[in-house]
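Lab channel / #folding
Pinned by the channel admin:
"Please post every new chain as: sequence first, then the structure tokens as a reply. Keep commentary short and put observations after the output so the thread stays searchable."

First post following the new format, from NK:
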Amino acid sequence: MRAHNRFVLDLFAGPGGWSHPLKVFGIREVGLEWDEWACKTRAAAGQLTIRTDVALYPTRPLTGRTWGCLASPPCQAWSMAGKRLGLVDQPLVHQAVADLATGRDTRAKLLTACKDVRSLLAAEPMRYLHALNTVGEPDWIAMEEVPDVLPLWKQYAAILRTWGFSVWTGILNAADYGVPQTRRRAILLASRVRTAEPPAPTHARAAEPESLFGPGRERWVSMADALGWGATDRPTPTVCAGGGPGGGPEPWPSGARKTLADARDRGRWRHPAPGRTDGHTRPGGPARKTTGEAGWSWSLRSNNQANATIRTVDEPAGTLFFGHRANECVWVAEPTAAEPDVDAPSGPAPEAIRITASEAGALQSFPADYPWQGNKGQRFSQIGNAVPPRLAAHLLAPHVGVTLTRDDFTLAA
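Reply from TO:
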């Protein structure tokens, strides 16, 4: 059982991907985070945070008080969205982990040889774990990173087993747990008190029939499901506060800044709500195709590169990453497949529209009303780096004594 005065420590806590499900579960948690706007988002969400550099924060105040430990080190050095210099630095990171596991701090020396100063952040959890292990803590651990970090998690696992932990490492797909995004992540789960194993998937690429063993898995959650859209719904151009790269009106592909009034003047009205003829939309509903756009359906393109992932709205999104590419993630129109009662495309294809932070948050499985703070760019950065809360919930549930089912949509409410 969890002691009353112990908490879950969340290293590199970000905007609350791990923290949101813990809050829903009623679990006490303390997050360490450096980014100013992620800290403000956490504060608005009611999450306890210490704004600090995880690489500099002392471990002593945490010993004797930590029940579980979470870590999702920044992935920019390893991600396919960046230069991936973390892979070049991998031997140095492995050395740092090995040294920290014995209480030797060689980070300063190793850092001088790193090609990316962020690479060694993946070794930071071991500094905390070594200090906590001296007092028999924590009871359990969960860590998440991009797939290329799996060899490092295996090194952690080998060390943790010598300390008495049961450990599992592997790659999980967030879509298998109800996240509307095929986000693959390297996971480490460890426990002193139970067998560490991955949670049973609740969803699959195709729905499964009921069997003697119970109901089959549901079909992956699509973007349309997550956003409350129909297959032909279209996103709506919006205006964000501020100006320049971090804010201002959502620009159109031509680069011209258009207001909503301009969009309406050009015929981009919302489709009437079901059963209405007065032109009003359903509350919070997306804009649908206009008559001049019949025969077109919408897909999400992850970036403007030739090999960009493109997914239709009746599929989960591909892995979302933003940073300097936030403005490249766009909704694009494609001809609807020929079907009875479906109009052939008429007129030019509707213009591409850039994804909003609210839509991106929903595709990460954050609640629709999650209190993101900062301008557009700051919000996108937080969302792209976050752990999907629904995936986090399934990873955490066995360790905190919570039973989740595939029908439990509390976290998406």
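NK: The chain has two domains: 7-208+385-412, 223-369.
TO: also worth noting, Residues 238-292 have pLDDT under 50 and may be disordered.
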